[in-house]
Structures are given as structure tokens and as C-alpha cells.
Amino acid sequence: MNRDAALATPGFGDVFTDHMVTMRWTAEMGWQATEIGPLTPMSFHPATMALHYGQTIFEGMKAFWRPDGQRAVFRPRDHARRFNNSARRMAMPTLPEEDFVTAVETLVRADAAWVPEARGHNLYLRPFMIASQTALGLRPADEYLFMVIATPSRPATMEPKAMRLWAAPEYIRAAPGGTGAAKCGGNYGGSFIVQREAAANNCDEVVWLDARERRYVEEAGGCNLFFVEATATGPRLRTPPLSGTLLAGITRDSILRLADSLGYAISEEPLTLDAWEQGCRAGRITETFACGTARSIVPVGHVVSTRQDWAVGDGVAGPVTSRLRQAMLDIHHGSAPDLHGWMRLVNVGE
Ligand code: PLP
Ligand code: COI
Description:
Blueprint: H1 3-8, E1 19-26, E2 30-31, E3 35-38, H2 50-53, E4 56-58, E5 61-65, E6 71-74, H3 76-89, H4 97-110, E7 122-131, E8 143-153, E9 163-167, H5 185-189, H6 192-200, E10 205-209, E11 217-220, E12 224-231, E13 234-239, H7 250-261, E14 265-268, H8 273-282, E15 285-292, E16 296-304, E17 309-311, H9 319-332, E18 343-346
Parallel strand pairs: 9-10, 9-16, 13-14
Antiparallel strand pairs: 1-2, 1-3, 1-8, 4-7, 5-6, 5-7, 6-18, 7-8, 10-11, 12-13, 12-15, 15-16, 16-17
Bound molecules: pyridoxal-5'-phosphate (PLP) and 2-OXO-4-methylpentanoic acid.
Protein name: Branched-chain-amino-acid aminotransferase
Family: Belongs to the class-IV pyridoxal-phosphate-dependent aminotransferase family.
Keywords: Amino-acid biosynthesis, Aminotransferase, Branched-chain amino acid biosynthesis, Pyridoxal phosphate, Transferase
């Protein structure tokens, strides 16, 4: 598929841009120079450590087209910081934040023509790092490969359909002391069995509960969760606290700041699955939405488990969800002022 056809067809993660960035690290030499070249398949020795012990981490971030012809990347420094947190947890080398940001910008500049123009569309950037040493000893590798690749993200419709979430308390994603707050490959591989179960039950995603009591809502697959509570003074946004077992979403943080500036009360407080159901049934919780880089802001319409099945509000996007979604899109595409300094402009020299 050529670029124009790819950009005109809905999809995510199915076609890739023309270039990739690579940077290598060895224990002896540290980080080597950043290289950009054509995107090509790579060959690896069968004993490459990443293939065996899961020392792989990644980020997911977005670049947007701007009406002035430039491109802008959303909160790249914050993604760099989280990438390094993941690296530390996985005993991998950290990358100077400036090098991470430069690598991402280099790819956006080379593949600027791949950044879709339509509102809600974007170029999804995937920085990642793998243990590239050939060895089978059970220890952290002495060689790593950092790369950035990109795929245009083209939603099928402007208004996302409300999600159905599947709660399966017999499975957990992360336990205290584990890797839940890191963006490492194993967290995702370990979730697929439940994602498959969710799909078999006509659900779009899994909602993860805490490992100790299997009662508290933590996050959903690939996204954080927000609950909109009705209070006497107006809507209040509630989200589970960063307990160490869920990912500190950059979108989650952005929504907390945005909600505050839009005048909504906010709270980071745990909520049990049962309290969520009762709150919805009693009208105290009027909306729920999921948020993340890939998914953006998506309403949750139903929650299903083997013993429960309830609708959230009217089962469609509520007013607070829609308002926050539009406010984020306005910032992303430069139609509202970037009051928080989130957009990093990439001069593509057109
Ligand atoms: N939680 C998990 C497990 C994720 O994979 C993601 C996606 O990156 C998120 C939450 C949302 O994080 P962010 O908003 O930084 O994309
Ligand atoms: C993201 O939103 O960036 C994610 O990582 C979710 C998923 C594509 C892994």
C-alpha cells in the first residue's frame, strides 16, 4: 500500500513509515551515535537475550500535523522520563532525555509526510529498547539496541464507540513489587489470554483489579480509567492512585491537569469494582472513560464479568468525557493555546 492509500484507510499499527532510528549501547562504550536509515527487517542471533528473558521496554507517543505546516510531538520529555523509569526497573541502561527526544524528532522530520492531517489522526511513535547481546546467561545484558519506528494512526470515526470492559478477577496484571509501573513487553504478553477471554465475551478490553484483594480497579488494557462522580458542586473526576502496580499514563496526567484548569474537582482515590457498579446503578457515577496514547479518550459504556453486567450512564459518551476529549484534540492540533507547554514543535523545513 502506498503512503496516500495508507493514510486514507482506517487502522493502527499495520503500516509503517519509511525510516527507523537506531542507537546502540554496550557496557564498554556506552551509547553510540544515533543513526537514521530506511526501515528494514533486521536479523538476530537465536540467542539474542531479549528473545529469552524479556528485557524489552517501549513507549507510545504521538506526533500531530499543524495548520502552519510544522509537526508537533506531545510531551516527549515526559515519555523520555518514563522510558528511563522502565529501563531502571528492567536493569537496562537509561538514555539521556535529550537523546531520546532528538531520536524521536529525527524520525518525525524524516517521515513528516506520514503525519496525517485529519483531526484525531496522528503519527504514533514507538521508541523501544531490547537486550541485543548474544548470550544465554541469566543476568542483565551487556548490549542494547534502542530504536524508534512509527505507524500512522487513522481512527475509523471521529467519535469512538463506547467500550465494553471485561473484569476477570482470577487474573492479575501486576503485583506490588512487580513490573506494573514499567512499560515492559512481558506486562502485555501476560495479558493476552484475558484479552482473548474479553473478546469471547463481546468485550473490547480487560479491566484489571489489584493483586492483593482482587477488588480495587487499577486500569484497563493499554489505558488508565477515570470515573465521573456527580456531587452537589458539579462533576468530580476520580482515578485510581499510582500505586506502583499501574502505568503512570501521560494522558492520565494530562487529563488531571486539564480537568483542573476546566474547573472540575479531581481526586486520586481507589474504587472497588462493586462500588463502581453501585455508583453507576445509583446515578452517583455518571460517566467512565479510558485514556491512553493509542486510544485517546474513549467512553466506557458497559462493564461485564461472570457475575456482573452493568451500563455506565446511558452507555455512550457523557458530556464530561466529550468535553475533555475535544479539549485534548484542540491542544494536539493547535486549535487551542498550549497553556501547559505540552507540544514540542518539530521544524520540518517545508
Ligand atoms: N496503562 C497501560 C498498561 C498502558 O499500556 C498505557 C499506554 O501506554 C496506559 C496505561 C496509558 O498511558 P499513556 O497515556 O502514557 O499512553
Ligand atoms: C499506547 O497507548 O501507547 C500503548 O502502549 C497501548 C498499546 C498500543 C500497547
